[in-house]
Design goal:
Layout: H1 5-24, H2 39-49, E1 55-60, E2 66-72, E3 82-87, E4 107-108, E5 111-113, H3 121-137, E6 145-150, H4 161-167, H5 169-172, E7 176-179, E8 182-188, E9 191-200, E10 202-203, E11 206-211, E12 215-216, H6 226-239, H7 248-256, H8 261-267, H9 273-278, H10 282-292, E13 295-303, E14 309-310, E15 313-322, H11 328-339, H12 341-344, E16 347-351, E17 360-361, H13 367-379, E18 384-390, H14 396-400, E19 406-408, H15 418-423, E20 431-433, H16 434-451
Parallel strand pairs: 3-6, 3-7, 7-19, 9-18
Antiparallel strand pairs: 1-2, 2-6, 4-5, 5-20, 8-9, 9-17, 10-15, 11-15, 11-16, 12-14, 13-15
Length: 453
């Protein structure tokens, strides 16, 4: 389906307006069951697609937390179905850190500002606009196109993709998935390299309950203060280095980024990688470090009952992201090594989530990967498209567990460097440029043209 410049201009405007409206709906997910309010965005998207020829169904796990699935039937029941999946929730903000109202959805110059502009309402809105355009065009591809706007991604999917994939496969059934995150172009003397996501790290968040002995706060000498122990444990976890794993994905990523020969050599050497990271811009260094290490982040701590009472319990919650192949036993081995036996005797380990999500990945030996490469090269001629790992979690893992190849895609303009783009995820002053909205909207249309060709 050929798309003229004027049509693409119109679609880009529609994506921009839909993104702004989704930001303004403030579907903030703080991890509690009563948060999110994704029904606001599900209703908005349903209104956008209501008058098309697509079959629409609202799926709900909890009141106020609706997801939307829309299916445009293909002409060949045997042809593979392609899903375009975007989540509708966003993470909380600290308004004082923003230059603008984070939920105003303002367009400032050539950018849309607001929580979710990058993660991932830009993709969710562009997918909806592309889906509606295909439906309105009357063109039908051999396989079904499925649009899935899903709730609760930002808190692990317990009220969204996880139960829906498990229990409502009749509504979601597909053979391939496109979702977040991908499309960052890297420029060098050798040409353009675009990173798409084929793998993501596992999640194994743990709660550490640290025990001591209560006593009177006026007599702290030689007491067993749980807060003091927790402070030492936090520092040990912070300083723990589990060692780098330099695999094929990481090597390809490093070689794509046009580092100096010295920095590249250090990054690919487990014994010298810390030297290279120390010399780099912090945002990029954080991302690279996370791509080749199991990571531990001390994110929540609670303890103490009264100002004059020595605390006997402290709860410490640690966000743990695992590399491919690592299990729960490996996580516990890491924590034991980090904390040490003399403190570990006072620690009780508990999973924060019911299950540990192991790292997942998808092969690039598929027709969808070929369609992505061809489509990206229409915008960046001759570009090399490389598979990469995302350090956070996405809903793609639930589909990969069913054997469904799932990629993180999109296409960004040359105006956003990779380090700058990564800093906007869950950060202050989140924003996306209009050209990236244009390129991403076009990408979905181009991929659909090529996937079944």
């Amino acid at each position: 389906m050929a798309t003229t410049d004027s049509t693409l201009d119109r679609l880009t405007g529609e994506t921009t307006e839909l993104l702004q409206a989704m930001i303004r709906n403030q579907c903030v997910n703080d991890g509690t069951p009563e948060s999110g309010h994704e029904t606001r965005n599900a209703d908005l998207l349903r209104n956008e697609l209501e008058n098309t020829s697509a079959d629409l169904e609202t799926l709900s796990i909890l009141p106020g937390r609706d997801s939307l699935v829309a299916r445009l039937p293909g002409t060949d029941p045997e042809a593979p179905a392609l899903m375009l999946m975007g989540h509708t929730d966003v993470v909380p903000v600290t308004p004082e850190g923003w230059k603008v109202d984070p939920f105003a959805g303002e367009r400032i110059g050539n950018e849309v500002w607001g929580r979710g502009a990058v993660d991932m309402l830009n993709v969710t809105s562009s997918m909806a606009v592309a889906f509606r355009h295909i439906a309105d065009s009357g063109i039908r591809y051999p396989g079904d196109i499925v649009y899935f706007a899903v709730a609760d991604e930002e808190a692990g999917g317990a009220h969204g993709a996880k139960p829906l994939v498990e229990d409502r496969w009749d509504a979601l059934h597909c053979d391939y998935v496109l979702t977040e995150y991908g499309g960052s172009p890297l420029f060098s003397d050798d040409g353009v390299i675009v990173l798409l996501t084929t793998a993501e790290k596992g999640t194994a968040a743990h709660r550490l309950t640290i025990s001591g002995e209560p006593g009177h706060g006026s007599m702290p000498y030689r007491t067993d203060n749980a807060i003091s122990k927790a402070a030492a444990i936090v520092r040990r976890i912070e300083e723990y280095n589990p060692g780098a794993k330099i695999d094929e994905l990481f090597t390809g990523r490093v070689k794509a980024q046009n580092f100096s020969a010295d920095i590249e050599a250090k990054l690919l050497d487990p014994g010298r990688i810390d030297e290279a990271l120390a010399e780099m811009e912090p945002t990029l260094a954080r991302n690279l470090q996370s791509c080749c290490h199991t990571t531990f982040s001390n994110n929540i701590i609670r303890g103490g009952t009264k100002i004059n009472t020595i605390p006997d319990k402290v709860s410490l919650e640690v966000d743990i992201r695992t590399l491919p192949g690592e299990t729960l036993e490996d996580v516990h081995a890491h924590l034991n090594a980090a904390i040490g036996p003399e403190l570990m005797v006072s620690v009780e380990l508990e999973k924060v989530l019911d299950e540990v999500n192991e790292s997942t990945s998808s092969s690039t030996d598929t027709p969808l990967w070929g369609a992505l490469v061809d489509s990206i090269q229409m915008t960046y001629p001759g570009a090399t498209v490389l598979p990469s790992m995302v350090t956070g979690g996405t809903d793609a893992r639930f589909f990969r567990r069913r054997g469904v190849p799932s990629y993180g895609a999109g296409l960004l303009s040359p105006d956003i460097g990779l380090g700058e783009f990564m800093s906007r995820f869950h950060g202050h002053n989140e924003r996306i440029d209009i050209e990236s909205l244009r390129l991403t909207t076009k990408l979905w249309l181009d991929v659909c043209d090529r996937f079944w060709a």
